[in-house]
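#struct-help
A.M.: can someone run this one for me? Single chain, 357 residues.
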Amino acid sequence: MNRPMLVFWETTRACLLACSHCRATAQRQALPGELDTADGLHLLEQVAAFGHPAPVVVFTGGDLLMRDDVADLISYARQLGLHTAAAPAVTPLLGWAALARLKAAGIDSISLSLDAPEAVHDRIRGVAGTFRHTLEAARIAQDLGLRVQINTVVMDQTVDTLADVAALILEARIPVWEVFFLIATGRGQADAMISPAATEDVCHFLLDASSYDLVVRTVEAPFVRRVLAERQQGVTGGRLYHRLRSRLEQRCGPAVHEVRFGTRGTLDGDGIVFVAYDGTISPGGFLPVSLGNSRQDNLVDVYRHHPLLQAIRERRLEDPCGSCVHRFVCGGSRARAYSASGDPLAADPACLLSAPA
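D.P.: on it. Structure tokens below:
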């Protein structure tokens, strides 16, 4: 893949929330060294230089609404022929006016975080009322004609409520659910991650959730495609899976079609690339390994030629990931491998095939 599907730009580290698992360890003020407007325009020109089909630029943070120039940056991206998405934080800055401004600037879709039912979600996000505000922002975005995606983090506080979150999304007629499996980076703590066995059960559940009117995607759980292949051979999940599946059927009734899940996804450095607030280029937002900087390095060259990214795309990984028959549809989470061992090419310890006995 000589071009990424997605370029994530962490436009700022500033944010008014204090999420317990924040990858960016965001704070209320922008950090020194943040890309200015000219730097941002230059970055967008580099993204456009990948050629057709151009990657989608995901404006994220922190909170992109903390930047005064965000509408100008989005508009310029559209002038360059780039498709754009936004991942705003749900704060008092996010209302009808802000969403209408993003739409007018050229945003195609937005993603909003909803991790659990109200009490748990608000506790995780650190601000009371965030749950209700999220549902209201989603409704406004839909009314404005924006495509809406809900993001959910899987960790010890949220895993037992995943079926209820799926039901909320279906009830709100939101078409896409992106499920993030926690990585111990930023404020994310290793003891909040679920076990490999529970991870396996969640993957089985997410496959079932895709048999409703919902596009389900995973982040840092590429082994869901290995689970999909094993499901076709009769393998099923354990107690957690059956509990979540029963709860989903209780809330939403029986499945409406067969499991629909893509057989190939993205991996850090293979289909995605991440640019931090200060221009640092990394394979992904949860894999903070510097590959260069957009101020002086060419993003296209870095993505296509950096040795680490070439090794990831060729699956030159340590065993068991490196010899796994599923390595090209999976490849393991490179971010989790790095978090656990300091080596982005190591085995993913959350996969049952590589977890310690």
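A.M.: thanks! Residues 290 and 323 are 27 Å apart (CA to CA).
D.P.: also worth noting: Residues 6-252 form a domain with the TIM Barrel fold (CATH 3.20.20.70).
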